């Protein structure tokens, strides 16, 4: 369609080239950065329109814009262009996960055993229910059912953070929602690393992969996070508190962590989450405790969720896949609400029910986690690993994306 629209322009351009020799060849396609910038503008406008007219969260508009212009619908953003802009999504999600990790007060949590028990009692039924549905109803093999459960068990800390900020929500329920999503994300990352080993044990000829890869993921992420947090604190201690220079150091070290994790094939989302938690725990002098990313969350969200929307494989939608996806989400929702209703933890039952509703958003990292696991074994073919995001008949898209960023956002 675009070729038909631009064919007269191409002919006129080529005619000018005969006299104006300095003109470059007519571009066959728009520059990926220009396309991505246009996509961000459209995403922002759609998000603002949905918020103003329908009261929907802006995040939905960002995802819809990415879906519309991505490979699944109009195809203006190709798979190759999506792979090129993937590092931007890595950095966006990484910085958001850094803020989520910094919001965890590990010392306070160590004295609040009720909240930890409540979180554990919510995580375990969620994983179990999703695993049983994927294995018993959908018919996945146990390894892939476990992978689907690990990918989808967590709530969306980035989405919850943005919605809380957008609605200016405050209070005990909001605090519990934030803490539950952060802790469930941390648990999901650990389970995800273990499941990677399970998948290796199922499909790899060398058992060493099943043992070393999860350790590489967890230990690698922890080492990078610790080193970058230490570097950030050492440099920031030399600068005035709450200064722009400290903000710069925080962002620069976070981006350094993103780049290092990408080079070493370590999950960016896990690395930056751990970096944030380590910063929160180690910053006893309050060097960076009051240094935040000023109004930066929404810019990061637009980048992240536009890429997420463009990555969803809607072109392979079938009614069976849709029903399976709805079934999985219902099972997941019931497990979370029921678990929290019976969890206790020092919060009244009606408020626990509200917390269970508040932690329903599915994590954006789930899309990337599903792609990364599938990218390890693209030859397996048809799989329902990405069941809540629509199942693909083959994993060519994840494989091509993972070739650029093996452990992206």
TrEMBL record:
Query: Per UniProt, what is the membrane topology?
Result: Multi-pass membrane protein
Per the UniProt record, the lineage of the source organism begins with: Bacteria, Pseudomonadati, Pseudomonadota, Betaproteobacteria, Candidatus Accumulibacter
Q: What is this protein called?
A: Cation:proton antiporter
Tree of life domain: Bacteria
Q: Where in the cell is it found?
A: Membrane
Keyword Lipoprotein assigned to the entry: answer is no
Q: Which InterPro entries match?
A: Cation/H_exchanger_TM, Na+/solute_symporter_sf
Domain annotation Cation/H+ exchanger transmembrane: ranges: 43-367
Gene3D superfamilies recorded for this chain? 1.20.1530.20
Q: Which organism is it from?
A: Candidatus Accumulibacter affinis
Membrane-spanning residues? 33-52, 59-79, 144-164, 176-203, 215-240, 247-276, 296-314, 326-347, 353-374
Gene Ontology BP term (one):
proton transmembrane transport
């Amino acid at each position: 369609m675009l070729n038909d629209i631009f064919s007269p322009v191409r002919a006129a351009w080529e005619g000018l080239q005969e006299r104006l020799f300095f003109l470059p060849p007519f571009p066959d396609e728009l520059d990926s950065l220009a396309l991505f910038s246009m996509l961000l503008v459209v995403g922002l406008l759609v998000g603002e329109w949905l918020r103003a007219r329908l009261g929907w969260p802006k995040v939905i508009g960002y995802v819809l814009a990415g879906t519309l212009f991505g490979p699944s619908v109009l195809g203006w953003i190709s798979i190759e262009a999506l792979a090129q802009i993937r590092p931007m999504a890595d950095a966006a999600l990484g910085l958001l996960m850094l803020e989520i990790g910094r919001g965890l007060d590990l010392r306070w949590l160590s004295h609040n055993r009720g909240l930890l028990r409540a979180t554990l009692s919510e995580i375990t039924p969620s994983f179990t229910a999703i695993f049983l549905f994927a294995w018993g109803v959908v018919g996945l093999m146990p390894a892939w059912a476990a992978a689907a459960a690990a990918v989808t068990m967590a709530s969306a800390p980035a989405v919850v953070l943005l919605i809380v900020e957008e609605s200016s929500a405050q209070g005990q329920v909001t605090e519990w929602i934030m803490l539950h999503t952060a802790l469930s994300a941390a648990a999901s990352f650990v389970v995800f690393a273990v499941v990677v080993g399970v998948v290796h044990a199922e499909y790899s000829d060398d058992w060493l992969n099943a043992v070393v890869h999860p350790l590489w993921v967890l230990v690698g992420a922890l080492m990078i996070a610790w080193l970058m947090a230490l570097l950030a604190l050492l440099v920031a201690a030399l600068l005035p508190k709450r200064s722009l220079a400290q903000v710069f150091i925080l962002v620069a070290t976070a981006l350094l962590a993103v780049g290092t994790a990408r080079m070493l094939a370590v999950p960016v989302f896990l690395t930056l989450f751990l970096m944030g938690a380590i910063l929160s725990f180690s910053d006893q002098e309050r060097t960076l405790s009051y240094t935040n990313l000023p109004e930066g969350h929404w810019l990061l969200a637009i980048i992240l969720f536009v890429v997420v929307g463009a990555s969803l494989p809607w072109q392979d939608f079938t009614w069976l896949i849709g029903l399976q996806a709805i079934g999985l989400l219902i099972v997941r929702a019931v497990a979370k609400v029921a678990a929290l209703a019976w969890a206790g933890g020092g919060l009244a039952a009606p408020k626990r029910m509200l917390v269970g509703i508040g932690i329903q958003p599915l994590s954006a990292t789930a899309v990337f986690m599903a792609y990364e696991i599938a990218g390890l074994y693209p030859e397996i073919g048809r799989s329902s690993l990405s069941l809540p995001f629509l199942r693909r008949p083959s994993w060519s898209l994840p494989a091509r994306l993972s070739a650029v960023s093996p452990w992206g956002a």
